[in-house]
Amino acid sequence: MPFDPTPVTDWIQPRLDSGQVIPEVLDAFADLDEAGAYEVQQMLIQRRMSGGDRLIGYKAAMTSKAMREMVGLKEPVMGHLLASGMLDASQTVAVNNYVKTTIEPEVAVILKHDLAGPGITRPVALAAIDGFAAAIEIGDIKTGDNQRSLQMTLVCNVMNGGQAVGSKLVSPSGIDLRVEGMVVRINGEVRGSATAAEVLGDPINSVVFIANKLGELGGYLQAGMLLMTGSIVRGIPVAAGDHVQVAFTRLGEVSLAFAA
Fold first, then answer.
1. pTM of the predicted model over 0.70
2. Full residue range of the structural domain in which residue 219 is found
């Protein structure tokens, strides 16, 4: 019998909207597998869109080899980006809107051509990119400090709480993201630094992954979409009063301020 995502979706949706720590989905639906969790994620997004929201792109997570090995994953995971999650870098973000708030410095990608997987290769993905930008993703860790299953991560849309993208769009021509440096500061203090090679060896590989995973799920990437390629360092908790600045070598910078 084909999997019906409706019961799981009906169970998780009010909990996602509650603003409270969510119990582990496998405790209620022990047979939920990865494919089923992706179906639940898609149904939740469709419901948001039916309510007036708009799909603007996708995100990759668990792009660090060390993180995947730690939780036993063979590949990254994918989530959706909605228009309601776009943040203006000039606005102040309320941490009280999230269960547990983290920030992740990332390379954002804007597409100029459609990408329809599976079978997308790195050269094909690169040719479809309009440009790169500095970005901050907010993580809304709806499980709090509790360990979460892969299925829980997926039904929570990979813990996406929104994203801010810098105003500078850099052409992919001549840019090697593997050596693109990044420094993240919170209240002026350096809290992390690395090159974008920490993201699957090259953030372009995240574009390849998203296009091919979406193809497996029956969708495709459209021109103009935003892709968040994955955090360059581990997510960093933030609190009211924090000011976050992410600065890249050539992609410019982006910042966010947080309040209660």
1. yes
2. 6-259
